[in-house]
Design goal:
The chain is an alpha+beta fold. The chain has 4 helices and 7 strands, in the order βααββββββαα. A 7-stranded antiparallel sheet has the order 1-7-6-5-4-3-2. Helix 1 crosses helix 4. A hairpin with a 3-residue loop joins strand 4 and strand 5.
Length: about 150
């Protein structure tokens, strides 16, 4: 399955990429409603580094999500893959493209939900909806921080 979120803005692509290289970027990008905790941040420039997040999947059910950085191509793209976590598989590409009006930030996520056929049937209602809300928030935070308005986050 695939989720894609793209947003263009009038900010420099190097600023958008540099924002994602900040050591506390995962904390900044975590919406308050997610009830997630960053146990260990990853350094995106270090291929093989791992981020560890404790998050709630459904209600009180918690899981530990380990994402490993597998590609680093500044200032255009970096990628992380789920090493351990709630999905059967997860590959997330963060793509930053310069264009005449600024930058396009595009997140492309290829994933396979748990629970086989049941997970695939429920994904449009549960996973896709949650991802849309999460990445709406993340793109707004990225826009503000890339414009130097981190105190507004």
């Amino acid at each position: 399955m695939r989720f894609t979120k793209g947003k263009s803005d009038q900010v420099q692509s190097r600023g958008v990429f540099a924002f994602h290289e900040l050591p506390d970027v995962l904390n900044l990008l975590m919406p308050p409603w997610e009830q997630a905790h960053v146990v260990q941040p990853a350094e995106i420039s270090a291929v093989g580094s791992q981020a560890i997040i404790e998050t709630r999947v459904f209600g009180p059910i918690k899981t530990r999500w380990v994402a490993q950085h597998t590609v680093y191509d500044p200032p255009r793209m970096f990628e992380d893959v789920q090493f351990k976590g709630p999905f059967h598989s997860w590959r997330h590409r963060h793509i930053v493209e310069a264009h005449e009006d600024g930058t396009i930030l595009r997140d492309e996520i290829d994933y396979e939900p748990p629970l086989g056929f049941i997970g695939r049937a429920l994904a449009p209602f549960l996973v896709q909806k949650r991802l849309q809300r999460l990445f709406n928030y993340r793109h707004e935070v990225t826009r503000r921080c890339a414009k130097g308005k981190r105190d507004e986050v």
